[in-house]
Design a protein that fits this description.
InterPro entries: Med22. Its main location: nucleus. This is Mediator of RNA polymerase II transcription subunit 22. By secondary structure, the protein is mostly helical. About 70% of the residues lie in helices and about 5% in strands. It has a domain of about 50 residues. It has four helices and two strands; from the N terminus they run ααααββ. Strands 1-2 form a two-stranded antiparallel ribbon. About 15% of the residues have low confidence.
């Protein structure tokens, strides 16, 4: 009787180990549910990315409009001299001449550049948002 009882206990323990191994195998190798979880998380992150992109585009457009209004105010004020380049042109001209930061205290424009500058202000140009604006 003791031998039979010991065999039954060993068989029970073997079944318990087998069930445990099957559970572990199912948890670790359940590729459809793992793939589904990955796809769901991927979709959540893509949605978050789209929301962030929309917010960034909105901020860019708002900043472009504000910058355009500030430039209009600056160039129509008494502070601006007729020989002044638009800020972006002054930056790029200085950047192409050397790698030092621009010196905005002295005019960067010759008489020839000033006349072409007047033509630039008379023609449509792109603001920071990529929209054509007329000055």
């Amino acid at each position: 009787m003791h031998v039979r009882a010991a065999n039954i206990v060993r068989a029970g323990e073997s079944l318990m180990r087998l069930v445990s191994d099957l559970k572990q195998y199912l948890i670790l190798n359940d590729f459809p549910s793992v793939n589904e979880a990955i796809n769901q998380r991927n979709q959540q992150l893509r949605t978050l990315q789209d929301e962030c992109d929309k917010k960034l585009i909105s901020l860019r457009d708002e900043i472009a409009i504000d910058l355009y209004e500030l430039e209009e105010e600056y160039y129509s004020s008494s502070v601006c001299e007729p020989s002044d380049l638009p800020l972006c042109e002054a930056y790029w001209n200085c950047d192409s001449l050397d790698s030092s930061p621009p010196d905005f205290s002295s005019p960067l424009v010759s008489a020839e550049t000033a006349s072409s500058n007047n033509q630039i202000h008379a023609s449509p140009h792109l603001n920071g948002g990529g929209m054509v604006e007329h000055s």
